[in-house]
Amino acid sequence: MMTTARKIAHLYQAVATPEGQGVTVHRTIGRPDLSVLDPFLLLDEMELPKEAKGAGFPEHPHRGFETVTYMLTGRMEHGDRVGNHGIIGPGDAQWMTAGRGIIHSEMPVASGEDARGFQLWVNLPAAKKMIAPRYQDVSKDIIPTVKGEGYEAQLVAGELLGHEGAVKEIAAKPFFADVTLTGDDEVTLPVESGHTAFLYGIKGGFVVDDQSVPTRTLAILSDGDFVKVRGKAGTRFLLVAGRPNNEPVARYGPFVMNTREEIIATIDDWNKGRFLSAT
């Protein structure tokens, strides 16, 4: 039985930030005034115009966390030194566990439309930071569509109304859903108590507890076991939640560990050519 409604604790409007090669992203989590939202490290809404030749995210390393890419329009191609490869389009996702180290690239594929989507970084707990890397290519065909009262949700990860998302076995026990309102009414969405949770507006503003949330804005929620969202039919937003690690975070660019000493060791592995073979 749901008992406590989540409310909006903080609002952060996305800030345009240069990233990758010729890309401007709209960042909420991962900027100076919101460096970490445990267990989340970064949330970027990316938009690559179809005529922007050469723009994208060329080969680069990661260690100590997971990256999630979810596409709204256009197509992106992933490749890494571990041997994984995939092209994702509208409604597709990929969940990459960098673990002890991975080197990958994400570049747009010509499709006649802008490439628009999200990248979310999810931290790994200390005990799992040096696990073997893993790549989950998640086609929209295996992402369940969950129909609730007044909404439809594409359930990438987590559980909703007896359905289980396509992404499995993630340390943070994440919930990741792309929600569209089907009527002009208030809807109720369950969120596991004790988990960090946020909403992000994709299309059309919405209201939580009489507080408006515009598009391209992050709404961090207070604790509770459900959230009520009011908006017009067609309003679309992300609802994301995850179990916090409650551990120190040390980060340096694409590396996220628990201590400064571990970051120094990671940089040393990178500089001495043993990054991918480190254990």
Structural class: mainly beta
- CATH structural fold name: Jelly Rolls
Number of strands: 26
What integer value in Å does the Rg equal?
18 Å
* Major beta sheet summary: 7 strands, antiparallel
Assign the CATH class: Mainly Beta
Unreliable spans: none
Could you say what the CATH architecture is? Sandwich
Strand content: over 45%
Helix and strand run: EEEEEEEEEEEEEEEEEEEEEEEEEEH
- What helical percentage do the residues reach? under 10%
Distance N to C terminus: 44 Å
User: How many domain regions?
Assistant: 1
Mean residue pLDDT: 94
What shape does the CA trace take?
A: globular
SSE topology sketch:
Elements: E1 8-13, E2 15-19, E3 23-27, E4 40-48, E5 57-62, E6 65-73, E7 75-80, E8 85-88, E9 93-97, E10 102-109, E11 115-123, E12 134-138, E13 145-148, E14 151-157, E15 159-160, E16 163-164, E17 175-181, E18 185-190, E19 196-203, E20 206-208, E21 211-213, E22 217-221, E23 226-231, E24 236-242, E25 250-252, E26 255-257, H1 260-271
Antiparallel strand pairs: 1-22, 2-3, 3-4, 4-11, 5-10, 6-9, 6-11, 7-8, 7-10, 9-12, 13-14, 14-17, 15-16, 17-24, 18-23, 19-22, 19-24, 20-21, 25-26
Structure notes:
The protein is mainly beta. It has one domain: Sandwich (Jelly Rolls), CATH 2.60.120.10. The chain is 4% helix and 51% strand. The chain has one helix and 26 strands. It has one helix at residues 260-271; strands at residues 8-13, 15-19, 23-27, 40-48, 57-62, 65-73, 75-80, 85-88, 93-97, 102-109, 115-123, 134-138, 145-148, 151-157, 159-160, 163-164, 175-181, 185-190, 196-203, 206-208, 211-213, 217-221, 226-231, 236-242, 250-252, 255-257. The protein starts with 7 loop residues before the first strand and ends in an 8-residue tail after the last helix.
